[in-house]
Specification:
This protein is an alpha/beta fold. The protein is 30% helix and 26% strand.
């Protein structure tokens, strides 16, 4: 099969990879209908996250099951399925508490690499959710978004306790941040503030339900949020970047007693204990338990109540993955969908 391999920072190649096979009886093999490039893929691409030799890339996927292991019972060949970026058994005590990304048997799909034509999905019964029939082609991008960025944005909004009567601020205007805007509105937030400087992303944020756009960053951004909230700060803030600046901005934009949901993959983030102590904010986040939300997200998408696939503003064939990485790295694209 053809698959994307990162050989070194900036060196993306599409090359022949060995076809996947059933290894464990709980595995499934899917033929991908679509895959994509994630903002987190840019960390190793930019050399910020160190590599240990060539690595298969990708952790987001939708497709049709071709083969299942002998112990798989909840999905079957020919079904169209959506899965999380973390494979989970969905039966352990951690999974049952709603944190499938912390499953005792978890497998991070990035180690398998789903920017490819085929993929082995471990723990298929606990990881894959079948759609009600074969989806219409125009729904595939939104179902793909559910595999990571929509589920992650949703978790960020839930962790921040977005809901009726609340003002929600989203720090970060990438695909996850934009999906957090959508999630906050779906969860009933009264006011949703998107922090963004880029006009195409501002437009999409407004389409997804943002009520306000703030272009300032850092201390100026915090001051603007305080101004919009009567000097108090927001009830809920979603941090969707993963840098020191974004986390500091998120915490300082939150009112005492408010909640920060952090879902940006943290890189060199350090929180001063004294500031955190006196801020009186709640912090909750980490790798999103996407599997918890998949049934509901699939239902919303199939019923055409939400259209998160709009975060894909560039579609390329798999063989042009290198151009997709360049487009996202240079911020010419919000998120790139790859057609295997």
């Amino acid at each position: 099969m053809r698959g994307v391999v990162l050989h070194a920072p900036g060196d993306v190649r599409v090359e022949q990879r060995q076809d996947p096979a059933i290894i464990e009886p709980t595995d499934a093999i899917i033929r991908l209908a679509a895959t994509c490039i994630c903002g987190s893929d840019l960390w190793p691409y930019r050399g910020i996250e160190k590599m240990d030799g060539p690595a298969p890339m990708g952790h987001e996927y939708v497709g049709v099951i071709e083969e299942i292991g002998s112990q798989v019972t909840t999905v079957r060949p020919s079904q169209f399925v959506v899965g999380s970026f973390v494979a989970s058994d969905n039966t352990c005590e951690i999974c049952r508490s709603g944190y499938q990304s912390g499953c005792v048997q978890r497998v991070v799909m990035g180690a398998i690499g789903t920017q490819s034509q085929l993929a082995r999905i471990p723990l298929a019964d606990g990881t894959l959710v079948a759609t009600p029939g074969t989806p219409e082609p125009d729904l595939v991008p939104s179902l793909l978004a559910a595999s990571d960025v929509l589920g992650t944005g949703w978790f960020g909004a839930v962790a921040a306790q977005a809901g009726p009567g609340r003002t929600v601020v989203v720090v970060g205007d990438g695909a996850v941040g934009l999906c957090a805007v959508l999630a906050a509105r779906q969860l009933g937030a009264e006011r949703v503030v998107a922090m963004s400087r880029r006009e195409p992303r501002q437009r999409l944020a407004m389409e997804f339900g943002a009520t306000d756009i703030v272009t300032e960053r850092g201390d100026a951004g915090v001051a603007r949020i305080k101004e919009l909230t009567g000097g108090l700060g927001a009830h809920s803030v979603v941090e969707a970047v993963g840098t020191q600046e974004s986390m500091t901005q998120a915490i300082r934009s939150t009112r005492p007693g408010g909640h920060v949901g952090y879902v940006g993959v943290a890189h060199d983030v350090a929180l001063p204990g004294d500031e955190l102590f006196f801020s009186l904010v709640h912090l909750h986040g980490g790798p999103a338990p996407v599997r918890q939300y998949l049934p509901r997200l699939i239902e919303l998408i199939v019923n055409r109540e939400i259209d998160p696939g709009k975060v894909f503003d560039l579609t390329l064939p798999l063989d042009q993955a290198a151009e997709g990485y360049r487009a996202m790295d240079e911020r010419r694209a919000i998120k790139v969908l790859l057609r295997p």
